[in-house]
Please model this.
Amino acid sequence: MVKEKIRIQFNIMSHDLVPLHEIISEKEKTELLKKYNIEPNRLPKILSTDPVSISIGAKPGQIVKIIRNSHTAKEAIAYRFVVESSI
Amino acid sequence: MERTNSITKKIGSIYFSLLSPKEIRKVSGTKVITADTYDDDGFPITMGLMDPRMGVVEPGLRCKTCGQRVGKDKCPGHFGHIDLAMPVIHVGHIRTIRDCLRSTCRECGHLLLSSKQKDEYFQELKKYEQEGKNKAPLFKQIITEARKADKCISCGREVGKIELDKPTSLRENGKKLTPSEVREWLEKIRDEDLPLLDINIKSARPEWLILTVLPVPPVTVRPSVTLQSGERSEDDLTHKLVDVIRINQRLQENRDAGAPQLIVEDLWELLQYHITTYLDNQTSGIPPARHRSGRPLKTLAQRLKGKEGRFRSNLSGKRVNFSARTVISPDPNLSINEIGVPIRIAKELTVPVRVTVHNIDWCKKIIIQKFSVNGDSNEYIPGVNYVVKDTEGMKRRIKVTEKNAENIAENLEIGSIIERQLMEGDITLFNRQPSLHRMSMMAHRVKVVPHKTFRFNLCVCPPYNADFDGDEMNLHLIQGEEAKAEAEILMKVQENILSPRFGGAIIGGIHDIISGGFLLTNKDRKIPIEDASHILAATGFEGKLPKVFTENGKRYVTGKDIFSTLLPDDLYLEFKAKTCLNCEKCTAPDCPYNAYVIIKKGILMQGTIDENSIGAFNGRILDRIIRDHGMGAGREFIDKVTRLAIAAITLFGFTTSIEDEDIPDEAKRQIEERLNKAMKKIDSLVKAYENDELESLPGRSIEETLEMEIMRETGKARDSAGEIAGKHLGLENSAVIMAKSGARGSMLNLSQMSGCVGQQAVRGERIHRGYQYRTLPHFKKNDLGASAKGFVASCYKKGLTPTEYFFHSMGGREGLVDTAVRTSRSGYMQRRLINALEDVKVESDGTVRHAGGQIIQFEYGEDGVDPSRSIAGKSVDVDRIIADIREGV
Model:
């Protein structure tokens, strides 16, 4: 993970337009899937090669929680399922 | 209506493959050799195009292949085939053929790549397959790579340059290749090379891209119609097939007789043309085949393609029963929830009712009642059109007539279904195209009315975007109980008063309703008690009369008090009316223009009722009533306001004419003076520009500065002309009442009619195109003055000068073109958007998911707020709470 991070010149996570991403724990993950009563592949996806995934070290199978600023609801929480990239 | 538990499944993959000549012959019911259809006795010719072995169209006849009939037994029809004398290229595959030829050797059929390259590409393909990537670019690369070779690696033959002559001929090094040659070449391509050419060995061989046998579609696909005159008219496809067979026959005869090469080639070419147009009659590069009348034939591709094609017209869109369409007209006495349906339509549309123990007596009554009434009373009596008896799975529909009505009623069984005519109070769906939002289709309760048009309350015009200049609308009758309940709860007009677009009402007073409200409540209008009770009666008012006061021995009621009878007692509201002039120093609540509305305890204390109170888009009173008392109260308010305002305006009288635009001579003189002043100003600007004295604005050239200054000056001139005219148009003027109250028109419209029309513009600039250095020959070259560049100083009432008229037409045309372009473009955008979003919905847990169950949004709109229940997008109305506390409610 560290090796991958070195490649990035600028820490994109500190950019104004990049919302807060965090990997959620296994426990949170099961809770989330139970709450929405879904399989993980029903969630929106994020590639494991996405600059943000690389930056926070998200691996396929994990779920990323995204906290965005919202027009309507100040803060909006979304989740994305990390998937393997074919590239 | 049975319910099937549908399981959503993903389509894993779809394979398309080519039919081999062997397969075509195998599925063929008959070989077709005769170009004729029917013989002199009207029987289909064997081995002709209408051979009954290819299926039958007339009901009752049996198909000679499967022995079944069309309708009941469902004989689907069977393919036949035509053996082509010479092979012909399939237009749809010409690109694939070209690519195959380009990347293989003519001599040995080897792919023009080294074995190392081949291995590499096979590896690559496998990788792409695993990753699920789009393989198209890779295949393209293979072909470009193969084209680089100049010699075949295995046999050493020089590689020729293959060119495609659209639409269907190929050349090698400039020499034309016949389809036979192409086919021979394609036959040589080896199976192991096919995957690299994007061909699946299981589904196709490259030589099948060349037609040697043509499948003939079943008769059911191209039915012939018998006209009243007894003449038969064949389908376009049959016509085309006749051509193909005829030429094919001639080609065969000529070839067999050893005719000169030239003749054979000509016929071959002709056959190619007929088959190409049979497949697609809009192939570019060849003239479309035409019917005798000159109409281009509709062949295979035309059946599927485009808006009128099978996909968009028949599969995505369908025609329905139990619907009606007619012209619409207004009726202010109907509730917004109602729709007036003409008797003629009501008698045609039916609702199925199952006969049960509980309703059998009612059913019997309704079957006979229509015929038991004698005399021609104009009252509408619903009857029954059909009775459907279900005996041992066999359904029998019996038409109810005057003769058999008694008999049917007597023998009515429980479990039968009667198809009852439309009755008052039935719930229906009403729709106007284009259906751009959900309010374009709403549920109305039926009210049967005489004459031939659908009628509805005027307040419902905005959501449908309807007017009565000849618009037609559709009505759908709901057939099931579940659907009725759903429509009642979700689609009724009253449930759609609040728009999900901005959370405000889109149904409310328009036009005369606003004018009426204005006339009733403006200033302190006194209404004689007799008239007042007339108006109140129109709303169905019951209760104590509003405060009556006596003046000069006559008894009066104020207009405001009459209006107040519609307001609920707990209404407290303060807002600015539409008539508000936006004075620099607002003196509210003591507005001298009566433009500040105060309502306390449901009494209109002061202010004028206009668009901002009861209008369709920003009616504050309406909005508040719906929020506090619900949709039902909102509906009642709209209904009553309509009747009240119409009664009032009818009583007072209201008319507008060309005299409304009359202004005194003094005003005309003032306007002229003002315009002259503007002209002089513009002349001086032009002069300053010509003398190079004009100072340019930052970031603009001198020319641009001049244009901007002139535009500003003309704008100012029009405004002040309007102002002068406006001064002489007071509130006693009907046109002004309409403009100020927001009923129709604006003060700008009025000032253009009686003041000055103003500068005409094309593309946001003064008009400058036309002749060399001038717009029209009436002006001097390089004239930059106002009138030479499209300033219309006249008003519409006075009339335009010829040059002004010309400029005005230019500006007007631009407006027309703009709207035409905008609607078509936004329509297409809408289509794409709706196709993408059609199955997205909010689930019961608040998430937004599409039909496959994928989550699109975790909370609808990120805040879970229904915009139609929000207050201008917010879930809490803080201002309201503060106002209420202050008021002490």
